[in-house]
Design brief:
Blueprint (H helix, E strand, L loop, with lengths): L1 H11 L45 H13 L1 H21 L5 E11 L8 E14 L4 H67 L5 H16 L1 H18 L2 H4 L2 H9 L16 H7 L1 H22 L4 E14 L2 E17 L6 H68 L5 H36 L5 H6 L21
Antiparallel strand pairs: 1-2, 2-3, 3-4
Length: 488
């Protein structure tokens, strides 16, 4: 055995081990977002509260907190982490010994006599693999990175749930505002239509103006059901996101929908940071980093197969003379010593598996880079759209004021007989469009702010993540590469 062990180890010394793929570097420290100067924004997100509190709307805060506590997608993500914990524990147990046992029952009747003996045997064994080439360590490392990726995936789900809840609430308030604008204008148009009917009856106006007024009124009134449906749709989305259906708390959503409220607006400057900060905090990027670490570790597991597996075994066996009397031991044997197994000397299959793993590692590298690029694009797009809508806000507000004044003047001139009712109709139509455009602008400003915070990755501190019941750290051995070390 000793001779075979020496020969095997000497053969291993000449094995050509393929090199591990290198991760490409991404230098983002010197870059900044196009629409926000880095110097004007905090570099550390520890000073930033949960982003939905920056809209200063208690109802929004309550809805998001409910969603983060009750949403079922988060429950699924947490269950995946629990499964990963079990897999990590299972991989860690490979460091310790394993046991096995067995029993056997034989029929002994060599002379074909009428006497039949039933003989019972039993074995008990233990084995411990000596991790000489790091296979077990790398398996544990891979499972650790897998768990970390799932932790980040849960955080990504939390970011998505928070943004979807905020957006559903914004859509609810937007639909309410647009419904209110349409109802207000429909009331004014109905008043004008009633007046015009009286004037036509008195011979002071004509059927052309009357039909134009009726068409505008009916068109405005026809928009009301769509806005009411939008309110109901947003309410249903909130019920689903906050788990209200499961808790039987749908009345809460309907109560919110029955109360008029303004579209929440961001208070103060947006906290953005730099691209390098984004890479460190966005959960899908950190999950992609963890997947790179997992693939690298699995590659080392495959490379360990190039070398023998050395284990230390101990076995004991007993043979009982009679099935009915297990206290009578006819024979007892035991064995103890090392064991060596190897997939060589033909290692072509192992090398093929290494090539497969290396290709998967390259794919993980590429996926990581693309995740970073996509994140940068999403942030810059959201910021550009946000800045554009903010820039439009003053002009749209001014246009609404001007349209309101124009309607007053048109009505005054009509009452004095200076103009016909067509000018009043045009002024009413212009005011309705201007007010609706202003509401939609407020909606888009908040929508793009939410999109920006979604793209930025949540902006939670560790303490706030713990308060949401979300794991923030991966339990890792000191000698296991942490995911932060993979950040370029």
């Amino acid at each position: 055995m000793a001779t075979w062990l020496c020969v095997s180890l000497s053969a291993c010394a000449s094995i050509d081990v393929p090199s591990v793929p290198e991760q490409p570097a991404l230098n983002l420290e010197s870059t900044s977002f196009a629409n926000v100067p880095v110097a004007d924004t905090p570099d550390s997100m520890n000073d930033v509260p949960n982003w939905w509190t920056l809209f200063d709307d208690p109802v929004l805060v309550d809805l998001v907190q409910s969603a983060l506590s009750e949403n079922r997608d988060l429950a699924v993500a947490q269950a995946n982490i629990t499964a990963a914990d079990a897999l990590l524990k299972r991989a860690s147990l490979d460091r310790s010994y394993s046991t096995s046992s067995g029993t056997g029952l034989t029929l002994d009747n060599p002379t074909r006599s009428s006497d039949v003996d039933l003989n019972l045997s039993g074995t008990l064994g233990a084995s411990w693999e000596i991790d000489a080439f790091g296979r077990i360590d790398e398996q544990i490392r891979a499972q650790t990175f897998n768990r970390d990726a799932l932790v980040q995936a849960r955080r990504d789900v939390a970011v998505l749930v928070a943004s979807q809840t905020a957006q559903a609430y914004v859509d609810l308030r937007s639909a309410q505002q647009r419904l209110g604008v349409a109802q207000e204008n429909a009331a004014l148009q109905a008043e004008g239509l009633s007046l015009l009917n009286e004037l036509v009856d008195a011979g002071r106006s004509n059927d052309l103006d009357l039909n134009r007024s009726r068409a505008l009124y009916l068109t405005t009134r026809a928009s009301l059901p769509a806005f009411r449906a939008a309110v109901a749709s947003a309410t249903a989305r909130l019920n689903a996101l906050t788990g209200a259906y499961a808790s039987g708390d749908e009345k809460k959503g309907r109560s919110i929908a029955s109360e008029q409220g303004a579209i929440p607006q961001h208070v103060g400057a947006m906290a953005i940071g730099s691209p390098a900060t984004l890479v460190r905090r966005r959960p899908d990027i950190r999950a992609a980093e963890a997947r790179v670490g997992e693939r690298l570790a699995l590659g080392e597991v495959e490379r360990a197969r190039l070398f023998p597996t050395l284990s230390f075994n101990a076995d004991i066996g007993a043979f009982f003379g009679s099935f009915g009397d297990v206290t009578e031991v006819n024979s007892l044997g035991f064995g103890i010593g090392p064991a060596l197994s190897w997939e060589g000397p033909d290692l072509r299959r192992v090398r093929a598996d290494i090539d497969v793993t290396d290709a998967q590692t390259e794919a993980a590298f590429a996926a990581y880079e693309q995740t970073v690029f996509t994140a940068l694009s999403e942030v810059e797009t959201a910021l550009a759209l946000y800045a554009g809508e903010v820039e439009r806000r003053d002009d749209l507000a001014g246009a609404t004021d001007a349209a309101r004044n124009a309607l007053k003047l048109a009505r005054l001139r009509f009452d004095e007989g200076l103009d016909d009712f067509l000018d009043v109709l045009d002024a009413q139509r212009t005011l309705l469009d201007a007010q609706d455009d202003l509401v939609q602008n407020d909606t888009l400003i908040t929508t793009y702010a939410i999109s920006a915070y979604r793209a930025l990755g949540g902006m939670w501190t560790d303490a706030e993540l713990d308060a949401l019941g979300q794991p923030t750290e991966t339990v890792m051995r000191p000698d296991v590469l942490p995911v932060e070390s993979l950040t370029p």
